[in-house]
Amino acid sequence: MATAVHVNHLVMSLAMLLMVWRPVGTAGTWIQVALFALFTVVMLLGLPTVHGVSERVGVVNHVVLNSLMIWMLLAMPLLMGHAMGGSADAHAGHHGGGTGDEMAMEMAPAPAWAEAVNWGAVVLSAVITTWWLVRLLRDPGHRAHSACHLLMAAGMALMLALM
Hints:
Number of helices: 6
Shape: globular
Number of strands: 0
């Protein structure tokens, strides 16, 4: 289970860095969705082998954060806005490839349901961040471990809030 969690952290960190710097397109998005779904299934299947309440909550936290990562990947186009009636060229302008005229286009607002779900995801990430903060303060033997998880959860909350 520990190996799956560590590999999951590496892949999620790289995915978040990638999504900040460049669009990956539809195929890249679906590859990431499949990877995080696979990690989620692996963790759910491994959950019965985990002993101790704190460790089980930690695995459940990872399952929730992976689900939120999938939400982030799929909802990003909806929440980040696209030009109303815009073409693919207008979308390229959104990522810095246009002349600026495309940026002046009116952007479609995100649906209210999507914004509500996204803010629910921010709250869940914040709760998980708080869990890891409490663990960091209460368990001095695992500070680096708890700090890593705290930063991952806080990063998820921040990325979702920015969307």
